[in-house]
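name: query_chain
kind: protein
chains: 1
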Amino acid sequence: MMTRHPLRVTGRFLWFVGVVLAAALDFLFRCAFRPENSAPTARALWLQRHSRRVLKIFKLDARVSGPVPTSGLLVSNHLGYLDIFVLASIAPIVFVAKREIKSWPIVGWLTQMGGTLFVDRECRAQVGQVNDEIQAALERGALVVLFPEGGSSNGQTVLPFKSSLLEPAAQSTHPLSVSAIQYSIEDGDVIREVCYWGDHTFFPHLLNLLGKRAVRANVRFAPVQRTGTDRKQLAVQLREEILKLKTQSVP
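structure:
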């Protein structure tokens, strides 16, 4: 993928590095030595603060519609690493993510410091442990975000949902919401240059994206009423709700 506008890319990349360094220092002062009971909230607020700064680098305008949840489980479609910064900028959030993200450059570090719960979906014992951690986060009133597709897509559809991490939502009375994220740019192709999927590699994708004039994100939220306590049925219901939102939220 050829990167255009080298001066813009260079300036924004240096800005990005500066934001990451500032985030590291801020973490030491605000989060590193927090008591255990207040650390999760402090980390979520830290991630929100620096996600907003990251979005400024990309000239990303996030347009939000629908009631933004403040607690409970939020289930969203997943188009790439920008989703993390967009959702975190809107509300303090605890993410649940696949363990591979932990090794991503920069994004992995930011999400880890922000209190993300990482899971290996192939390990049943770890899935059970993460479900317990999700339940604990819900009990303390956090807003937990889950991407049940299990990976990111090109945005043309919503992949079938994996239900293994929906057990806490299926068996509890905590609020349940969905969100649909869509992107648009004027000087490029969203599928190839904004969505992060398939055989994309991080730094070439990031540098190309930094060269875009601006990015627009449309994020639509909606509450969901459970229709049962079976997690597999709930997975189907939530996917259908997001597909409806995607149709409604086309610019």
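note: The beta strands are 60-65, 72-76, 94-98, 117-119, 143-146, 176-184, 215-223.
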